Amino acid sequence: MEHRSKILDCTIRDGGLVNNWDFSVEFVQDLYNGLSAAGVEYMEIGYKNSPKLLNATEPNAWRFLDDNFLKEIIPEKKFTKLSALVDIGRVDPNDILPREQSVLDMIRVACYIREVDKGLELVQMFHDLGYETSLNIMALSSVPEHQLIEAFEMVKESPVDVVYIVDSFGSLDPADIEHQVKKFQAMIPNKQLGIHTHNNMQLAFANTLTAMRNGVTFLDSSVYGMGRAAGNCHTELLVSHIQKPSYEIKPVLGLIEKHMLEMRQKWEWGYIIPYMISGVLNEHPRVAMAYRDSADRDKFVDFYDKVTSPEANLAPASK
Amino acid sequence: MEHRSKILDCTIRDGGLVNNWDFSVEFVQDLYNGLSAAGVEYMEIGYKNSPKLLNATEPNAWRFLDDNFLKEIIPEKKFTKLSALVDIGRVDPNDILPREQSVLDMIRVACYIREVDKGLELVQMFHDLGYETSLNIMALSSVPEHQLIEAFEMVKESPVDVVYIVDSFGSLDPADIEHQVKKFQAMIPNKQLGIHTHNNMQLAFANTLTAMRNGVTFLDSSVYGMGRAAGNCHTELLVSHIQKPSYEIKPVLGLIEKHMLEMRQKWEWGYIIPYMISGVLNEHPRVAMAYRDSADRDKFVDFYDKVTSPEANLAPASK
């Protein structure tokens, strides 16, 4: 399986959820060049949501990707393809150029299970514009079986290239992942699968390896794990562990050395006890993130009592 | 399998390799009480090697365990049993009391594959004194198959209770662990198995879960992962993930909150790039540990070049 797999690095997109996309142009260029030298197949350079639809008052280059800006900062494409993520209801179809006029190669659509129909409408549009597409179904660990079956009836008929298994809460272990992959394969045998993990229980890398060994081809990761809350599977681990002659670890080590240590000092992500607890409890990390921003950030027993008390109300289905 | 498994916490013993066993009596007592409240079955309270045989010039309470001292600081045993580790050629048999006169319940013998005969002599002696025993074969990832077969012929005939699979270099992944467990089970079907992992590639917890699901019963870990270099599987992850009603996470969270954050500030262990590299390369972490003590500690590309250059000579079989 290993030679068929592809790494999709989400450092900018998922990492932006940590620092409000406060990445310099130099960093994004270094990342693109480094990932290309490392043989990483895809880099997700941000969200392509609409500032208007989100009532944004500040510019945010990596949250509201603009094709002209992208062409300026990446005047020449190298090995790595570029992708962008969009959210249902937050993307303006008029913002999307035909692929041949864009620096982007792939557009990925994130949605919850109840919005799969809307997600597939977007997929169809991006597909017709020439893009590779994926559908990323979030919060999978909370999706009832019958909803998945209904959704997959629609997915099967869609032109979507890749369907992602997304462990949004970092609550799945390798046995769970294997179970999900087999379910997805049985229900949508005509689709490539992808995996997006979170590291709440230090299982992001192991879960990604398990998915790969069971036939999943698109592997999401980020350099030094940078991503919301506990972060993601680490790109450097995939590049060094997967037996593919085109992968080179040194350019990724160079990125970590030059940028990531300092960024980790400035912004927090990774294995941190409240995120471990939210993963164990299969909860969105939002409560844990708020706790980490408070004076009580290191009161782990209090946090555990709070989130497990009968009054706790922690898992609304919305973002 | 889960209900049969037992956690053996190595915080003091393996963590002592990080801080030269600079643990206060208060910390060790808190750890013992916390692990007992958490339902952790065993705590390894240190090494029972001989200061004379090691020509030690300084006292070191947790490296050279003394039964009288242990009785003073743990006057009353609670739920958790106590174990100690010994090394071949470093333990003086005259230092070992019969079990009924000791606070210790288990003595574990660490050895390399070529010393298994000597290891089993010690095991026999400790067994005859009434202790539970284990044989921990180190550096397993470098052991040739035929040596393992020869060693296991002796192990089969020994009274040893538990034989450990030790991933000394943190170089194994879950597929490797499954392979090793099945090999051990086929060769020594009459023995319980144990697993001791290192977290170089963020696989310590996943490897431990894989071992457990394949029938391994003794699971080594340490609180917040404290152990040499990349550290071990985290006790808090095992206690929160294993489905065993007797496990309680809160006492372990209390230990992390009260002690481990501060200790992690003072001493270094965990997922750190040079340790990741030594794991990937299946090398002892000693070169990486020396590098982390130098001014070049964060020059990851240089480190990689150094350890992969044709002149590098990194893996002598000795400790």
Describe this structure in words.
The structure is a homodimer of 319-residue chains. By secondary structure, chain A is α/β, with parallel strands linked by helices. Chain A has two domains: 2-266, TIM Barrel, CATH 3.20.20; 273-308, no CATH class. Helix content of chain A is 40%, strand content 13%. The first copy, chain A, is built from twelve helices and eight strands. Chain A has helices spanning 11-19, 25-38, 67-73, 116-128, 145-157, 174-187, 204-213, 235-241, 250-266, 273-280, 286-292, 300-308; strands at 6-9, 42-47, 81-87, 106-111, 132-137, 162-166, 192-196, 218-221. An eight-stranded parallel barrel of chain A has the order 1-2-3-4-5-6-7-8, surrounded by six helices. In chain A, strand 7, helix 7 and strand 8 form a beta-alpha-beta unit. The longest helix of chain A is centred in the last third of the chain and has 17 residues, at 250-266. Chain A is globular. Mean pLDDT of chain A is 95; it is low at 315-319. Chain A binds chain B through residues 173-175, 199, 201-207, 209-210, 213, 234, 236-237, 240-241, 249-250, 253-254, 256-257, 261, 271, 273, 276-277, 280, 298-301, 304-305, and chain B through 173-175, 199, 201-207, 209-210, 213, 234, 236-237, 240-241, 249-250, 253-254, 256-257, 261, 271, 273, 276-277, 280, 298-301, 304-305.
